[in-house]
UniProtKB/TrEMBL annotation:
PROSITE patterns reported in the protein's UniProt record: AA_TRNA_LIGASE_I
Keyword terms of this UniProt record: Aminoacyl-tRNA synthetase, ATP-binding, Cytoplasm, Ligase, Nucleotide-binding, Protein biosynthesis
Domain Aminoacyl-tRNA synthetase class I anticodon-binding, chain residue ranges per copy: 368-500
Residue ranges annotated as motif 'HIGH' region: 11-21
Recorded family membership: Belongs to the class-I aminoacyl-tRNA synthetase family. Glutamate--tRNA ligase type 1 subfamily.
A cellular component annotation (GO) from this entry: cytosol
Stretches assigned to the Glutamyl/glutaminyl-tRNA synthetase class Ib catalytic domain: 4-346
PANTHER family: GLUTAMATE--TRNA LIGASE, GLUTAMATE--TRNA LIGASE, MITOCHONDRIAL-RELATED
Name of the featured protein: Glutamate--tRNA ligase
Catalytic activity: tRNA(Glu) + L-glutamate + ATP = L-glutamyl-tRNA(Glu) + AMP + diphosphate
Residues spanned by motif 'KMSKS' region: 260-264
Quaternary structure annotation from Swiss-Prot or TrEMBL: Monomer.
Length: 503
């Protein structure tokens, strides 16, 4: 690429960062890194009425946890700062007035009541009110009023907005990296407000001005902004600026495949839609987060990359470096991507196997008071034996409790299957064998017990099933001989005796 790639993720601090926003940030990050570019975080807080305390820091914390930190933004490499739009508001009015001078925008003095009247009047006639070329000369604005009247209103301090003057009878030919060529007739476009009566710009003006001043080369954003593309192209043209390249990402759909994924879907179906837990500062309502639910950031990133993007191969497991190398915007789909909560669990299970056992053991120990006095090295050995069966660290206790405490009851279904009339007698014999083993290694335990089974011509299941129940309380868990080695000779014999007593 001829220019150094600069992309931005520009969320609004109106609440926690939705999983769809994380996907947008990820695709911007991957594209920037693929082309040795810069990933910028800009906070678009022009709508102060919707500002939520703590949301900005949440966004930063979420990106850092995901492993996709921004290169440039608030308090970081502030080459083009400030990076909050509310701190840049002194810039925007001059650009809006520049558009008025060039004939591409105008002052509009219509009151909210007047606009409501026109909407209701059109609705009564079965029409839709659109403020544009077909009626703007009939409304209260600097196009319909004389220059003297317009100036008088401005000097009198009348409320006004600045609207873009959308052209009449033109065909716009737009290009999107993902969607290809797009054709739009200007007659269907409304004259969008660029500057509000409260002295703040709308998203459209601030977005374009900031992207230009920050030298953004590619705008990668969600599909919901596709209807704004025509206005944004026209604004670049009106200012005489070179437009960046645009790419609009597909929606993330509900698990059913119908409709956009929302927090309500997560609440209903039992999965998070936010990367980190969020506590609403007003209602104190707590929303679940992937981090707190036990997901690894690598798993979430790998999963999100496949929501709308396809590498063109059968490979599904990608670390971040591999994603950067493989990522191409041209391989992003146009159609929506269905969110599959089971698939992200599949990814998490995979990344669980790649985690360091010592680190998993530390985390496991913190979760359970029963492990407080257990050597973490022993816990790490246990984790190595059972993590293949787990998806989350929170699964570990159910999978491994018998390594730390003796079972206090036995699975009824397993007991009916394993216990026979002579089971108590056989288990007593096995305990005698175990008592004679001096070197209680896995190999020695296995050799002695299998040897006794062969010599006494006893069915293998007659011994191994009740023995497993004695050790773990049911017919589950890793290799029986490994369990006996781990808990030790004394504890093994004690548990078998407890089963004999129960029988």
């Amino acid at each position: 690429m001829s220019k150094k790639v600069r992309v931005r993720f520009a969320p609004s601090p109106t609440g926690p960062l939705h999983i769809g926003g994380v996907r947008t940030a990820l695709f911007n990050y991957l594209f920037a890194k693929k082309h040795n570019g810069t990933f910028i975080l800009r906070i678009e807080d022009t709508d102060q009425n919707r500002y939520v305390e703590g949301a900005e820091q949440y966004i930063i914390d979420a990106l850092n946890w995901c492993g996709i930190p921004f290169d440039e933004g608030i308090n970081k490499n502030e080459k083009f700062g400030p990076y909050r739009q509310s701190e840049r508001k002194h810039l925007y009015k001059a650009y809006a007035e520049e558009l008025i001078k060039s004939g591409n925008a105008y002052y509009a003095f219509d009151t909210a009541e007047e606009l409501d009247f026109h909407r209701a009047d059109h609705e009564a006639k079965g029409k839709t009110f659109i403020y544009n070329w077909h009626n703007r000369l009939k409304l209260s604005n600097s196009l319909s009023l004389s220059a003297e009247k317009t100036q008088a209103k401005l000097e009198a301090g009348d409320d006004y907005v600045i609207r873009f003057k959308s052209p009449q009878d033109e065909t716009l030919h737009l290009t999107d990296i993902i969607r290809g060529d797009i054709k739009i007739e200007t007659n269907v476009l409304d004259d969008k407000v660029l500057f509000k009566s409260d002295g703040m710009p709308t998203y459209h003006l601030a977005n374009i001005v900031d992207d230009h001043l920050m030298e953004i080369t590619h705008v990668i954003r969600g599909e919901e902004w596709l209807p704004s593309l025509a206005l944004h192209y026209q604004l670049y043209k009106a200012f005489g600026w070179e437009a960046p390249e645009f790419a609009h990402l597909p929606l993330i759909l509900k698990p059913t495949g119908k409709g956009k994924l929302s927090k309500r879907d997560g609440d209903k179906l039992g999965f998070p839609v936010f990367p980190l837990q969020w506590t609403d500062p007003v209602t104190e309502e707590i929303s679940r987060g992937y981090k707190e639910d036990g997901y690894f950031p690598d798993a979430m990133i790998n999963f999100l990359a496949f929501l709308g993007w396809n590498p063109g191969t059968e490979q599904e497991i990608f670390n971040l470096e591999e994603l950067i190398a493989a990522f191409e915007l041209e391989r992003v789909n146009k159609s929506g991507a269905r969110f599959d909560p089971d698939k992200i669990k599949w990814f998490n299970h995979h990344y669980m196997q790649e985690q360091n056992n010592d680190e998993l053991a530390e985390a496991f120990k913190k979760e359970h008071s029963e492990l407080a006095d257990i050597d973490v090295n022993y816990i790490a050995l246990v984790v190595g034996m059972i993590k293949e069966r787990g998806t989350f660290i929170s699964d570990f206790w159910e999978l491994s409790a018998f390594f730390f405490v003796a079972p206090n009851c036995y699975d009824e279904k397993a007991s009916k299957k394993a216990f026979k009339e002579n089971t108590g007698e056989l288990m007593a014999s096995i305990n005698d064998v175990l008592d004679t083993i001096t070197d209680f290694s896995i190999d020695n335990i296995q050799t002695e017990i299998k040897g006794w089974i062969t010599v006494n011509n006893v069915g293998f299941g007659q011994i191994m099933m009740p023995l497993r129940i004695a050790l773990v309380g049911g017919l589950h868990g890793p290799d029986v001989f490994e369990i006996m080695f781990m808990i030790g000779k004394t504890e093994t014999i004690k548990r078998v005796k407890k089963l004999i007593t129960k029988l």
